[in-house]
Amino acid sequence: MTSNFEYRYVSMTPEHSAGSSVVTYGTASVTAAAKATGEVDDESIAYQFDLMTRQDVSRYGSAKSVNGKEYSEGGINFVMQPDDFLGLCLFGIYGDNATSNSAGYSVSAFTHTFKEASDQILPSFTLEIGREEKEHTYKGMCIQSLSVNAAHGEYATMAASFTGKTESALSTLATPTFVGASVDGFHFAEGTVTFSEAGSTFNSADNIKSISLEYNMNLDTDMACSIGDRTYIRKPQPQRREITGSIEFSVPNTVNGTADIPDYDMMLATGGKLYDGISAKPAIQLEFTNGTQTLTLKVRKVRWEAPSANISGRDTQTLSLNFVGLVDTADNVMSETNLVLNAAVSNLSSGDKYSNK
């Protein structure tokens, strides 16, 4: 029996040339090194269309029908590991990359810094997906949402949701080269969660059971279409950016007693609780490291929602807190992400920004 596992893959290529600010929507980069193939757990990208069906008074059923808007959408799930594939997913929600030598690491390590700016436009990608018999190509794919999940005893994972143009013609399978073949995924045991209430102090919590973050771009897909075209002819633009998340503490944390660490009693404050951090000490910081490569996710300012601390007959009491990210009006930044990669496994270009063409 022949195995086709070697032909299952997901590759992403940004639709721009490395170092260029020009994006041609629906056209993959001509720079071969820009393509990144990730070690993906599963994918659900699919061709979709709206079926328009007519009903007239002279017939007992519909007699005519045509395709309406044609598009592609779906998601991928994978373990986060320090490679270009993870970097491209972060590109997809920030649209900017600043690269510098990382002090404290070897000279072959570089820090990629992603953060919001009001003048940035989010990029689009061409996805090439191997499915045992044929390669499926989806162009003009933009990231609709990105979520990060880390739980005790598990790998830290990421889920990315895409939407874009209709599927292209099938093509021949390729043999993938995984950009992160030499590194492993981040694990919860190598993670640190740190809090800052007002940006003056910074403390980490050692009793966190799980944490999740979601970045939602709220893409406007209706504006990507025009009369005379069935699929997207321009890149869907983001609307209000939303950052939400939740944290579960493995203990009740009714009164924590440590500065900056949120607890149940703190959430009862009149008018709710706001954590307003600064760039160096954000409200919430989630860091993973393996000693050389590092991923640091920062949410600058958060508003906490009502706490939940239920009990049952078999489970110990825990504390769950949801939060919403806010814009820090000092510099109009909601979040910042730092990704340290070894130069040997990284082809991400410094200073890439994106604009329409």
Q: What count of domains describes the coordinates?
A: 1
Structural class: mainly beta
- Residues in β-strands, percent: 35-45%
Shape, principal axes of CA atoms: globular
Report the biggest beta sheet as strand number plus sense, adding barrel if it closes: 13 strands, antiparallel
| Run of helices and strands | EEEEEHEEEEEEEEEEEHEEEEEE
Helix content: under 10%
Average of the residue pLDDT scores: 86
Total number of helical segments? 2
Based on CA atoms alone, the radius of gyration comes out at: 22 Å
- Strand count: 22
Unreliable residue stretches: 101-108, 353-357
What is the terminal separation in angstroms? 49 Å
Describe the protein.
This protein is mainly beta. The protein is 4% helix and 41% strand. It has helices at 84-94, 264-267, and strands at 8-14, 36-38, 40-43, 46-54, 64-79, 98-101, 109-115, 125-131, 135-151, 157-164, 191-195, 203-205, 208-216, 219-220, 237-238, 242-249, 273-276, 284-289, 294-299, 301-304, 319-326, 335-342. Strands 1, 2, 3, 4, 5, 8, 9, 10, 13, 16, 17, 20 and 21 form a 13-stranded antiparallel beta sheet that branches. A hairpin with a 5-residue loop joins β9 and β10. It starts with 7 loop residues before the first strand and ends in a 15-residue tail after the last strand. Mean pLDDT is 86; it is low at 101-108 and 353-357.
